[in-house]
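Workshop exercise sheet. Pairs work together: one partner reads the sequence aloud, the other fills in the structure field after running the prediction. Swap roles for the next sheet.
Pair: D.N. / O.F.
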Amino acid sequence: MTFMDGVIARAKPLWRAAADESFLREMGEGTLSRERFLDYIIQDSLYLRDYLRAFALAAAKARSLREMQVLCSVLGFVNDSENATRLQYLKDGGLTDADVERIPKKPACADYAAFLLEAAEKEEVPEILMAVMPCMLGYYDVFKTLLARYPAVLDGYYGPLVRDYTSAGYQDSCGRWTAFCNEVCEKLPAERKERLAALFEAASRQELYFWQMAGGKPGPHEAVVKKKPLVHCITNYVTVNDVANAVLACGGSPIMADDEAEVAEITGISDALVLNIGTLNARTVASMVKAGQTANRKGIPVVLDPVGAGASALRSRTAAELLAKVRFTVIRGNLSEIACLAGMGSAAHGVDVSASDLGNDPIAVGKAAAEKYRCVVAVTGARDIVTDGKRVASAGNGVPQMGQVTGTGCMLSGVVGAYAAANADAFEGTVAAVASMGLAGEMAWEAAKEKGTGSLRTGIIDGLSRLTDREIGGKGKISYEAWD
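Structure field:
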C-alpha cells in the first residue's frame, strides 16, 4: 500500500458521506432547483480563487524546478478545464465572474478557504498538498458515485459539470497528482506522514461541510448557533452551573428543572433533554423517567450520562430502569460506564474508569452498547470513540489536565444535547460535540498552563464560546473507520 492509498482510505468515509448529501442526490434525480445550483456555482467560484492562491503559494515554496512546474500546472488546469463550464452556468444565471467578486462567502466556504490559505502560508509543500488534494480527488470520487447511481444525469442540465469531473482526462489528472503526492511524501518520517494524513482528512471534512452548505445545511456548530436549542438538563448538583455555562457557550440555551411536577411541561417546550445520574435520589429518578417519556412522545432527542454506572447497585439499577423506559438518542460515558450498560462487565470504582477496564476495546464496547440500545454511543477517554453500531469515528483532541477538573464529562453531555438538538444526524452531531470539547480543553490549557486547573475550568467554557466549524473541521483530530 502506498502512502496515498492509506491516506485516501482514511478519507473515504467522508467522501461517501458527501456523496449522500441532499444536494448531490437531488442533482442526480434532476430535482435540484437551478437557484440552489447557481448559489453553489457562485460559492465554488469564490472558493476556487483561494484554491488557486494556495497552489501559487505552494509553487513559491517549491524545492525544485519540477515541483514548481507541477504545482503551477494546476493554475492552467483549473482555468482551462474547469472554467468554461462554470462560466456558462454563471451566464445562465445572469452573472459574470466580475459579479461574483461582490458576493460574500458563506461560512462553510469562508472556513474552507481560510483553512487552505493558512496551510499554504504556514506549511511546506507536502502539507499544502494534503490540504488541497481532497478537493481534486474527492470531486472525482463524489461525482463518480453520483454518475453510477444516476447515469441519466449526463443528459440533463447538470450533465456538463458531472462530465467534467468524471471524464477520462480528469481521472488521469487525479492519477498523476496522486503519484506526485506519493513522490513528495512517501519517504518522509512516519510521524510527519501521520500529520499529513490528518491534514488530508481535515480537508476532506471541509469538503463535506461545503457540500452540506450547498444543500442548505449549516455546519454542525453553525446549526447550534442558528437554532439556539433549549436544552433541558436534569443533572447533578456538583456540576450543574458548569453544564449550564457549557451549553450557553456552545450556542445553546440551558434550563434546569428536576421537580416531577414540572419536568414534563419543561421537556415539552425544549429541543433536547439531558439526563445525568451523577447525584441520585429517588425523587429525581422519577423525574428523569417522566421527562424522558415526554421527550420520546414529542420526538425530542434524549442524552444519557450514566455517571458511575457499575459503581453502586443504585446507579446500575437506575441506568437499567432509564434504558428500559426511555429511548435514548445518545449515551455518553467513560469506558467503564458504557461497558456496564453493554453488559460486558465493569470494575468501576467511583466515577472514573477503572484500571482493569482499560484493556477493553472501546470500539467493541461502544458498538455493543449502540447495537443493544439502537442509539449513538460516545465512549470518552484519552481518545474518544463515537459509534451508532455501524459508523465509527474517533476524536483525539483534549489534554490530560482536563481530568483534574470535575465535571468535564457532564459539561460534554450538555454540549452533546445541544448538538443533537440542532443536527439531524445525531452521529455527526455527537462527533462534532466531542471534538469541540477536546479543542476547548486544548485552547484552555494553552492559556492556563501557568495558572492552574481553576483557570483551565474557566478556559474550557471560554474555548467553547470561541469555537466555529472552521476549528472543528480543520483542527479536530477526527478519524473515521470505513463501514459497509
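Discussion prompt: The domain at 222-481 is CATH 3.40.1190.20 (UDP-N-acetylmuramoyl-L-alanine:D-glutamate ligase). What would you look at next?
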